Amino acid sequence: MAMKCASPVLFLTIFCPPKKSSGFIDDFTELLSKISTDFDCIVISGDFNIHIDNHTDTHARELISLLEAFGLSQHVSRPRQSFFSKIISENANNTHILFSTVDRLVNPPSLIARVAFHLKM
């Protein structure tokens, strides 16, 4: 993957178990608070086990609010059945609908599919 960014990029992988503890959002908020002060460019991938498009789901609404509060945006618009089910990114100076922590992020859905294919065991 080729990326252009003037400052360091932090890549995180997050897993939230299907049976969420009540503290996940609080823990995730604390993590984002700590890393957002040190990095302008953040890319978060992982399996959040949250149907972010279900606006009646409390966890989905909390996650969306948290992402918006930290200027994070979702790249993947449909569910993925792989380890890299979501990619969220943030750039302090530039947020787009199809997000990028950098000037360009190479076609995220197909990139994720290729990476996930190679990680299957």
Automatic annotation (TrEMBL):
Start and end residues of each Endonuclease/exonuclease/phosphatase domain: 10-79
A Pfam family hit: Exo_endo_phos_2
Organism annotation: Anguilla anguilla
Protein name as annotated: Endonuclease/exonuclease/phosphatase domain-containing protein
GO MF terms, alphabetically ordered: catalytic activity
PANTHER family: ENDO/EXONUCLEASE/PHOSPHATASE DOMAIN-CONTAINING PROTEIN, PHD-TYPE DOMAIN-CONTAINING PROTEIN
InterPro entries attached to this UniProt entry: Endo/exonu/phosph_ase_sf, Endo/exonuclease/phosphatase
